[in-house]
Write a structure and sequence with these properties.
CATH superfamily: NAD(P)-binding Rossmann-like Domain
CATH topology: Rossmann fold
Radius of gyration: 16 Å
Number of strands: 2
Oligomer: single chain
CATH architecture: 3-Layer(aba) Sandwich
Structural class: mainly alpha
Helix content: 40-55%
Length: 111
């Protein structure tokens, strides 16, 4: 937390949380006109549990989980379901420095 810049923190939150909010906001009118539908947000297991070293990412995914629940309640009367998917960690450049225990069982290699 102490090493990340405020700009970097905001960028992660903007992409992962504000981006999803903008998407739901844009999709809702079309789904309403269509008589309903489904919005699926991609969260992360980091939105369900804490992991050291990824504060902005975890905060954005916890926020997305909450925002998804609010949107589900608000859009339910219009027959629009809203849910989030929380996959576990996979080996990527972002997770490469966290060690094997973090991505244990991942079928995907670090690129």
């Amino acid at each position: 937390m102490e090493e990340q810049s405020p700009e970097s923190f905001r960028r992660v939150v903007d992409v992962n949380l504000t981006g999803a909010w903008l998407g739901m906001r844009a999709a809702a009118p079309s789904l309403r006109r269509a008589g309903g539908g489904v919005i699926v947000n991609m969260s992360s297991s980091a939105g369900m549990s804490a992991y050291a070293g990824i504060g902005s990412y975890a905060a954005s995914k916890w926020g997305l989980r909450g925002l998804t629940k609010v949107a589900a309640l608000e859009l339910a009367p219009d027959r629009i379901r809203v849910c989030s998917v929380h996959p576990g960690a996979i080996r990527t450049r972002m997770t490469a420095g966290f060690g094997d225990a973090y991505t244990a069982g991942s079928p995907f290699p670090v690129r």
